[in-house]
Amino acid sequence: MILGLIPARGGSKGVPNKNIKTIYGKPLIAWTIEKALEAKKLDAVVVSTDSEKIAEIAQNCGAQVMMRPARLARDTASTQDVMAHVLRQMPADILVLLQPTSPCREKGLIDSCIDEFLQNDYDSLATGFMCDYKEYGKNTLPRQQIEGFFYDDGNVYVIKAENILKGDRYGTKIGHKYISRYENMEIDDKFDFWLLEKILEKQMTEGLE
Fold first, then answer.
1. Which of 99, 199, 196, 81 is nearest to 153 (CA)?
2. What are the C-alpha distances in Å from 88 to residues 36, 72, 85, 162?
3. What is the Cα–Cα distance from 138 to 141, expressed in whole angstroms?
4. pLDDT value, residue 203
5. Per-residue pLDDT averaged across 164-173, rounded?
6. Which residue has the higher pLDDT, 92 or 18?
7. CA dist., res. 146 & res. 140, Å (int)
8. 188 with 13: CB under 8 angstroms?
């Protein structure tokens, strides 16, 4: 079984009620639920939350809901703990983590990530981009010569469930999937909301390349 998990805590310090805040006409979390339900490779889509309001919106969008205990609703709760909690209630072979704060996904992205994961027998796979940032004053090379590293963008993660239950979400064989720059965008503050609404508007009306 391949399980799609969307974690959505009710509390948010940066942007209050972030996961249900309206962005381009619908609650933020709805964008991720819709893409998850479109994916042909996912056998089920569940939202893990502590919020009755988020649960209601998720159910209205067609997702299953799993209410999480209070200990997993705190700021200190880790995504690892949330994933393990869901897998103990709903056993699966593969878990696909989809963060609602990354609403921009090309059609077929989730299925493509799963295919790549299976074809290469990865322990885990993440979407992201090549990051070449260096602290100002500590780099002596031109930007083009900085080797850089792969940075996961929070959009899609595909992980062997057995590893999560062992406390290891990464494993030893890790896949990197590079995606478009606008899909890398994620929401942390009010400016991100404004910017991503513009991106979603363009994506829905004109398409993006």
1. 99
2. 21, 14, 5, 11
3. 9
4. 78
5. 95
6. 92
7. 9
8. no
Contact indicator for 72, 97 with CB cutoff of 8 Å: no
Contact status, residue 149 vs residue 170, Cβ threshold 8 Å: no
Q: CATH class for domain 2-200?
A: alpha beta
Q: Report, in angstroms and rounded to the nearest whole number, the Rg of the chain calculated over CA atoms.
A: 17
Between 71 and 95, the higher pLDDT residue: 95
- Cβ partners under 8 Å of residue 18, min gap 6: 12, 28, 101, 187
Confidence of residue 17 (pLDDT cuts 50, 70, 90): confident
Number of other CB atoms surrounding residue 146 within 10 Å = 14
User: Can you tell me which residue has the tokens 């205990």?
Assistant: 69
β-strand partners of 105: none
What does DSSP say about strands 94-98 and 124-131: parallel, antiparallel, or unpaired? Answer: unpaired
What digits encode the pLDDT tens for the residues 75-127?
Answer: 778 999 999 999 999 999 999 999 999 999 999 999 999 999 999 999 999 99
Report whether 103 contacts 187 (CB < 8 A): yes
* Most distant pair of Cα atoms in the chain: their distance: 54
Q: Would you kindly state where each structural domain of the chain is located, as residue ranges?
A: 2-200
Nearest partner of 64 among 1, 4, 23, judged by Cα = 4
Nearest Cα residue to 19 out of 35, 30, 34: 30
Three-state DSSP class for residue 133: coil
